[in-house]
Amino acid sequence: TISSVLMVIEHHSTDDVQRHDRKNVKHMTYIARAYVFMARNITVDGKMNYAIRIACAGVSKSTHSLSEIRPMWMKCLELPIVLFSDHPKEQPTMFPITVTLCHQQPFLAQTRDDDVGKTVCVYEYMRRKDNMGRWEPFKLNPQWVQLKGGRYGSKVAGEVLVAFELLHSRDRGVPECAPRMMWPAASEEDFDEREHFSYLRKATLHVAMYGVRDLKLKKTPASMQPEHDLAPRVEVRVKKFHSDKHAQEELRQHQEALAQQHHQAMLANQEFNMGPLAGHHHKNDQKNKPPAGMDDDDQAFFRLGFKYREVIEGGDKGNKDDRLNFWQSDALGKQGNLNYEILQVKRKKLLLPDKALLQPFISFRVLERPTTFSEYKTLGSWLTGKFEQGDTDKHDWQVMGEYRQSLSESYPCKWLHDLYNDASEHPTESDIRTALERAKAELRAKGRYEEESAQQRAQAIRREREKLFQKERQRMNAKKVELIEPEAKTPEAVDTAAWPLALRNARDQGKRENSIPLYGKTLHVLNMHRGGSLKPREGEKHHKKDRTQAVLNDKLESRRNIGKKHVFSPDFYFENRPLLNGFDLQDPDTNTKDWHYYHAECFGFVKAAFKLTDGWAEENEDSRGLADEKEDVQEDEIDVDWEASRSSTDSDNEDRKEPAKGAKQGAFGGVTSGLTKNFDKAMKGVLGNMEKAVGAMAGVVGADVQKQERQDAKEEQVVHAKLDSKRLASSFGISDELDQFAFSVDEKDPKHFARRFKGQNLPSRVRVRIYFVKAICIMGKPGGQDPYLRFKLGNAYDVSMRNMYQPKTSTPSFYRVEERDIRIPEDARLQVDMYDYESAADMVGSMAGVFEERLIGSTTIDLEDRWHSKEWQYCSSRKAIPPEQRPLYNSEMPGQNCGSIEMWVEMLDSMKASEEKATDLRRPPEEQVEVRIVIWTCSEVPLLDGSGADMYSDVAVSVKLECNQYRGEEIRFPREQETDIHNHCTTGNAVFNWRIVFPRITVPTESCTLDITLKEMDSLSEDIIGQVTLDIRKYVEKVGRDMESVNSKADLKFMHIHREADGKTQEDVHQAVEKTSAGRVQLEMWVLTQEEATAKEAGMGRNPPNDHPPLTTPSEGRGWGDVFAGFPLELPSFGIFWKIIPLILFTLLALVVLRQIKLL
């Protein structure tokens, strides 16, 4: 049952108001369109067969099912729904739209839909005409929305990209209301905003394939050799975004039928049922077909293939520098994994959507050769692959693993600027960064669909109309049509820039005949300060030789370290990317998983780098050599600022001299801030007249010399401009170094890329120095661990330090340096394991004689990336590599942090190892500090004794130090110290002014805490009122490290200590105590070095020396009246005798005195 209620509430100050007629609400048919693009990050395991179901107002439709990790439907679903409204032009009462991701499974003769996740979207805007009778501009606003699933519907089960549209059913056949084409248009020329959502742009994909690592080797026949027979293939794929020819032909026929049906219906003035593409007209059938020149190698993907070869292309097998390495390693829980060097660079023409929201992706797939008869598709391919050892059919190769990464963040800078920046001027690095952040924000999934507000929609409509107005204005200007003849303006004598009329006329003439610049500089350079053209001169930085750098709280290769203020910024271009099965995109910037310890999901690693460039390679001017660019320079094409060109070139040369500047440069480093071409043209006339006047002052300068200087400056500026345009046409963040040795490869020299990792850049033996400092163990046995280290360098070294285990500690300190000579890349995998020591006797008794010690955690370092990193080599040569706080993981508990180890690695040529000694790694000297605490007052103290208005408490505060490195007891400073007693506290405020002193605390410490307890002091017992614990280890460590005292004040709240009372359970006491406060304590703490504390000596409590600060004894709660106030001492009543008792006592006293003086 569908119900709808329309309520109208009006407010009037009087009753004599004529009521409006009741609204005539009736049901009408509307069309709700759901544009279902694609889904991603689906978390359901098992077979994939996904579809999207859209439901609204009792009507539902589904897309076709797709068996893909990232299904891309690109389907517009039309739902004819019945809604209620009082007028056809008014917005109806809209129902929520439910979007459900289904997993379709065959069930008997039908298909069963299992819901994976769903979301409820609210969309209420109905398309309508404006006051001028024109349809309001409409644009699709697709959004990535989270789909919630699981048992309670709170787990994110996937994400879907959807958009919505609502219109009246009678407007369904109007051409302006036709559904948008979801597949991108073939080119920008074929793109129409009224028909398409996006269009395809030409791009070139450059891929530098370094190699594959740790590929899991399956069981193979013994006759096969891994180096030759089992060599894998690497396939690079990019999803295509243009539909096939059959779909285009079907679309064309459908549109013709709908257009004819629409025309007949308009003549008959009747409604009819039209398909989802009614009234949709195309210019031609070629609109969505791939353009000429495209390699149509696959209907679904663009593909690139890489294969292992024994030698580099064009190399000599007898030359070791031309041979590509193959070796086996133990990793990912298996032995004998395969490793291959590939060292190839290839490129591929692509067509990608201009909208980054569609998130095209690149996939690196490693394919393995079939080894058994069941794995071959045909008998012929089995015979060929087994007996002739030739290449089998490409369909027989099986996918070992796949790595996927988004291409949206790698779009050329020009694309990002065109998509997110309205300004047309030359973009800066800041503009591209802003555009990139906007692209990333669009790609983040939202918790629910967010419909744009009425204000946002009005602004969008205003912008669209402004664009249409500008286009029309440009069209009219092109035809030189002027509606109103502008009035002729009389030129001013002096303009706003202080240019006289005569000079302006000379400037506009633009004549510059045989003019020689003054001293080789243009006039505006001599008379105008050009800020920012020169870089500030900086002296050489001082590099300390000691290990005082801050410790990184993460791995050195983590991308989260980029931009942080420390000495190293990672430039590892070929990091290990995991090969997975059944996983969607992996983001290297945010993914913190260490895939070395996901043995069930990871099947190896691929090492590759890629970038995108605008256009196709042969169509780009950048494909030509630098010499060709210089030869094409024409005299009249260049108008530059000579001084800016020279200064910028000089600054670039200075940057190249610094080795560290080559790594991780911005995409727009070195952009020249010269004057624009129009301004230079405007200056030509002035230069022609003014330079003649100053010719005598300048002297006679050789025309040939000046011409040569001018030509050199022009050539330098052309080179600089080409580099700048190259960065604009390339992916953001690609460093010049990577672009030079990997992507700017001459096809005539196939060894260019491999030469970067061979020959002189790679010595035969490399000395590795591993510095182990200390560690923290989280996962361990009860009673403390006995940790020790073990490390492996490839298959060459397996070193165990079991005899150096540290007993009963969770924070072991090693301070040990290990040196080994290795070969790169064969031994470049460093794995550090931390084990829990078990004696043989304990293991026999506990594990029935199975001698196996428990692994606490491990960490893996790729030394190959570090050796080939110029930034790392630069820091290593200056002993400036920061220590790493590397997390420890265990494959039995993947994803769970089991601790951390502080360490760092140095590498150098083994031939030079004797010349440069290892860094001196010593335990830090033991420092002693002193902690002083002054208990000033307590407030909100509970009153526990007495009754009624006479309630009070006798309270004191005790402080206990928990620290194994405390040595103050040797000089009679106990671990637990207590203040004096504040007696008979009736207001809840107690005063102490008492000093607590803990000297000789040795740092570093394992732990250092203070237990501060508020006690109620009875005559025969002590009761704890409340307690608070302070961890002061960081203060103690800071003073021991920086040798500077620390002072801090605090107002701490005591926590209740639950205890059972007489006749009451613990729950009753807990409920009673929670209603009252446990009190607060106001204290001040000083942490000083022991030398400073000795110079500023102070005693415990208020004992001498009572200084730093001096403490006074409070008067409250210390008198005899306060001490005996708690005892019930009352005299009996004597009635009338009470009045004469003083007289009797005085008389007796007088008699005694008289007796003593012998007067009686």
UniProtKB/TrEMBL annotation:
<dbReference type="InterPro" id="IPR035892">
    <property type="entry name" value="C2_domain_sf"/>
</dbReference>
<feature type="region of interest" description="Disordered">
    <location>
        <begin position="1096"/>
        <end position="1115"/>
    </location>
</feature>
<feature type="transmembrane region" description="Helical">
    <location>
        <begin position="1136"/>
        <end position="1154"/>
    </location>
</feature>
<dbReference type="GO" id="GO:0007009">
    <property type="term" value="P:plasma membrane organization"/>
</dbReference>
<keyword id="KW-0812">Transmembrane</keyword>
<feature type="domain" description="C2">
    <location>
        <begin position="912"/>
        <end position="1045"/>
    </location>
</feature>
<keyword id="KW-0472">Membrane</keyword>
<feature type="compositionally biased region" description="Acidic residues">
    <location>
        <begin position="629"/>
        <end position="642"/>
    </location>
</feature>
<protein>
    <recommendedName>
        <fullName>C2 domain-containing protein</fullName>
    </recommendedName>
</protein>
<keyword id="KW-0677">Repeat</keyword>
<feature type="region of interest" description="Disordered">
    <location>
        <begin position="275"/>
        <end position="296"/>
    </location>
</feature>
<dbReference type="InterPro" id="IPR000008">
    <property type="entry name" value="C2_dom"/>
</dbReference>
<feature type="region of interest" description="Disordered">
    <location>
        <begin position="618"/>
        <end position="669"/>
    </location>
</feature>
<dbReference type="GO" id="GO:0016020">
    <property type="term" value="C:membrane"/>
</dbReference>
<keyword id="KW-1133">Transmembrane helix</keyword>
<dbReference type="InterPro" id="IPR037721">
    <property type="entry name" value="Ferlin"/>
</dbReference>
